[in-house]
Design brief:
The protein is mainly α. The chain contains 17 helices and no strands. Helix 7 runs antiparallel to helix 8. The protein starts with 9 loop residues before the first helix and ends in a 5-residue tail after the last helix.
């Protein structure tokens, strides 16, 4: 059936660009605490576990929040939800910058509501998906996924802005950018004319979504692929500082390089999935993650082996993230893409919540990260088996 409104028109390209920018801006806000975690730990005398909890709280809230936000996007569309979430994220950003950084409970409170910014992902996938035909959704959703590079913006700018100005500067700047984006999104964003709108209630849609096999399979895969990316993006500075003695600035820069490579590989994962079965792309990506984690569990010299292992995992995690949502775009019912995205996105975020806590606990007990990275290798291999034995057996290659 011909659906002109969903072809790759110039308007569709504009909507994709605006959605990607919105994703990046909200993720920038979502990741503001991570680059400053070691500074807060020193100022407030936090334990390794408390430091890990500080960067993990926004992740878990942003992850769980994707479930209702994805379902609401199915109902109200991205034109309403993108400005709404962007405006709501301004409140915790200003709170943290102006007064919420003076105690650990205040930081946790601000971090909890900062998680709102992490829900933007569940808005963009169904919004973008509706604008593109099935044979181009893998690439389109992969391009949108590059918005996760907002965490790199935070890594590259937050510490530098604090050193050059004061602690309030990065928070005030991010709040201003969020406000500008919310206004632009309200004026320019448009939902696809033939967007599938559900007729049932939110509870009924979530119930139906949770009964879909693709929901659980994609959730497990995304918990490893995107969860691994999130975990490294929030915990890598602390890891590099503790394991290799790098300065805070050097560790943040290396984390930004990890994030940038993962971001660039995400659309490639979607593009490859448009041409091959997403399960094949996922199999290759998960194999690289498992191999890189095994190598890094031995804590090799950072140059060149450690750097190569981390960059290999970054590329694989980005590719796997793009392939997972290419799988969702191809197999989820059109009027439930937002709901499925919300659940899968939550799984990915939760996949990023647990590892920093485990890594912090293991390091606090053994002063080594080897066991934590070995566990990552085991989990990646388990996901590989799921991909090969379940999805790969029934998936049809789209020519």
């Amino acid at each position: 059936m011909s659906q002109p409104a969903r072809q790759a028109t110039p308007q569709a390209a504009l909507m994709l660009a605006l959605a990607t920018i919105g994703f990046a801006v909200n993720f920038w806000a979502w990741a503001l605490l991570s680059p400053l975690a070691t500074r807060f730990a020193a100022a407030l005398d936090l334990t390794s576990f408390e430091q890990s909890l500080l960067v993990a709280v926004p992740v878990v809230v942003g992850s769980l929040g994707r479930i209702p936000i994805g379902a609401l996007t199915d109902r109200f569309g991205g034109r309403v939800m993108f400005p709404l979430v962007s405006l709501a994220t301004i409140v915790p950003v200003l709170y943290l910058g102006l007064s919420g950084h003076q105690s650990f409970p205040a930081l946790l409170t601000g971090g909890f509501f900062l998680g709102i910014g992490g829900t933007a992902f569940a808005i963009g996938v169904p919004f973008v998906n509706a604008w593109f035909p099935p044979e181009r959704r893998g690439l389109a959703v992969g391009v949108f996924g590059m918005g996760m590079g907002g965490t790199a913006i935070s890594a590259l700018t937050t510490v530098k802005l604090v050193d050059a100005q004061n602690l309030q500067t990065p928070f005030l700047l991010t709040a201003a950018v969020l406000a500008v984006y919310a206004a632009v999104a309200w004026l320019l964003l448009r939902d696809a004319p033939q967007r599938a709108t559900p007729a049932t209630s939110l509870a009924a849609r979530l119930h139906t979504t949770l009964r879909l096999r693709i929901t659980w399979e994609a959730s497990a895969l995304y918990a490893v692929a995107f969860g691994g990316y999130v975990a490294f993006s929030v915990y890598l500075p602390a890891y590099l500082k503790n394991a290799y003695g790098l300065t805070q600035a050097d560790a943040a820069n290396r984390m930004a390089g990890f994030v940038l490579l993962a971001v660039l590989m995400r659309p490639i994962g979607g593009w490859l999935s448009d041409r091959f079965a997403p399960s094949r792309v996922l199999a290759a990506a998960l194999s690289v993650v498992a191999f890189g984690a095994v190598i890094q569990s031995l804590t090799p010299a950072l140059a060149p082996v450690g750097t190569a292992a981390f960059l290999g995992m970054a590329a694989a995690l980005g590719t796997g993230s793009g392939a997972t949502f290419a799988l969702v775009a191809k197999q989820a019912p059109a009027n439930q893409v937002g709901s499925v995205t919300g659940v899968v996105g939550a799984a990915g975020g939760l996949g990023g919540f647990v590892p920093p806590l485990i890594m912090g606990t293991i390091y606090g007990s053994y002063h080594s990260y080897g066991l934590g990275l070995a566990l990552l290798a085991v989990v990646a291999l388990a996901a590989l088996l799921l991909d090969l034995l379940s999805i790969g057996r029934r998936e049809t290659v789209i020519p």
